[in-house]
Amino acid sequence: MRASLDHVIEQLKRAKRALIVGHVRPDGDAIGSVAALTLILRKLGVAAEGCIPDRVPWFYREIPGTRILRTVEEIRGRKFDTAIVLDSSDLSRIGDAVELLPREEPDVVLDHHVTNTGFGALNFCDPDYAATAMIVHEIGKRLVPYDRELAEVILLGIATDTGFFKYAAVDDRTFAAAAELARHGARIQPIASAVLEHRSPKTIRLLVEMFRTLRIEAGGRLAYAYVSAEMLRRTGCDEEETEGFVGEIRALHGVEVAILFTEWPEGEVHASLRSKSYMDVSRVVRALGGGGHPRAAGCTLKVPRLQDAITRVVEVTRSALLEEVL
Ligand code: 5GP
Ligand code: MN
Q1: Residues 234 and 289 both lie in one domain
Q2: What is the pTM assigned to this prediction?
Q3: Which residue's CA is the closest to the ligand 1 atom numbered 23?
Q4: What confidence tens digit (pLDDT) does each residue in 276-320 have?
Q5: Looking at ligand 1, which residue's alpha carbon is closest to its atom 15?
Q6: What's the number of domains the chain is made of?
Q7: Cα separation of 149 and 129, whole Å?
Q8: Nearest to 113, CA basis, from 43, 29, 171
Q9: Which residues approach ligand 1 with their CB closer than 6 A?
Q10: Which ligand sits nearest to residue 159's alpha carbon?
Q11: Ligand 1, residues 21, 27, 249: which to mutate, most atoms within 8 A of Cβ?
Q12: Is the pLDDT of residue 326 over 60?
């Protein structure tokens, strides 16, 4: 059922033991919005646990509020009366955390993906919000007083999902929310530093390796590269260290669509797609079983060879790009 924010708030107030979950391969919005809603519900006296069903990349821990996040293992066996799923367009996005849900269907789903399937009992999904953390902020400011810890995790979600306030979805509401959060003590500098300036020498070596695989097609409008399992092994990097790499490909002048293929774990290839100004990449990945936003989307393919995934995704993207031009 599609719900209003008032409706969602009523449901949240009834919770006694709440589970808040984000998606696998978490980004700053999943991490920030889950941490924020957990802090908000705890301020209301709810026994709330925030769970990310995958390892949280280490650099997010520099933002204090993210340290309340738990793994599935850490809260397995705990009983919850309410489950809230954030920033996830379908139930498969929460991975193993599905086993923690008290019922098959989450009680509340809050999201901003155009591809959201409406899989909760109550669904509030609005792609006009630049980040799920913006939705959490709308809820939080009606319910609790803010402190720096809370304001900062919300700002983390907004900043990361807007590319630090540079994507097309950024408007006066985004800046107004950021200003409100700054007034409550949130600082953008430690967030930017943690998220954008955490690369180690081995990550840079992996980035160099990635750029060796760069291909440019469609008259310069499509650029793609890959990180293979072997490259990860050779450089001693984890898959999470490829965060931000696809943005480096999009940074090429004239490129409209950038794709990064990451082969991890072996037998699986994740394609991250980014577009610059007109191409709807969420439409492209939908045909491949993925999801996301018009300018940032992804899909995971189970294929024996990395090259099989590359051929398939590039083919679909190339024809979508050509259609766009005609
Ligand atoms: P990324 O490319 O950074 O993994 O993800 C970009 C956007 O697409 C994010 O909003 C993410 O939630 C979404 N996304 C990435 N992979 C998938 C997928 O396999 N399925 C769905 N539904 N969404 C995805
Ligand atoms: Mn998001």
Answers
A1: yes
A2: 0.94
A3: 291
A4: 999 999 999 999 999 999 999 999 999 999 999 999 999 999 999
A5: 298
A6: 2
A7: 22
A8: 29
A9: 23, 25, 27, 89-90, 93, 115, 272, 290-293, 296-300
A10: 2
A11: 27
A12: no
- Ligand 1 pocket test, pick from 33, 158, 239, 293 with the greatest ligand atom count within 8 Å of Cβ, gives 293
Residue 172 pLDDT exceeds 60: yes
Nearest CA to ligand 1 atom 21: 291
Q: What's the full length of the chain, in residues? A: 326
| pLDDT tens, position by position, 188-247 | 999 999 999 999 999 999 999 999 999 999 999 999 999 999 999 999 999 989 999 999
DSSP class of residue 127?
A: T
Boundaries of domain holding 245: 203-325
How many angstroms separate the alpha carbon of residue 165 from the centre of ligand 1?
Answer: 19
Q: How many H helices and E strands in the chain?
A: 12, 11
Rounded Cα distance between 166 and 196, Å, is 14
C-alpha distances in Å from residue 192, one per residue of 131, 155, 173: 16, 10, 20
117 and 9, same structural domain? yes
Helix H or strand E segment including 155: helix 148-161
Residues 214 and 186 in one domain: no
Q: Which atom of ligand 1 is nearest to the CA of 29?
A: 10
The verdict on 308 and 181 lying in the same domain is: no
Domain boundary among 171, 196, 221: 196
Ligand nearest to the CA of 300: 1
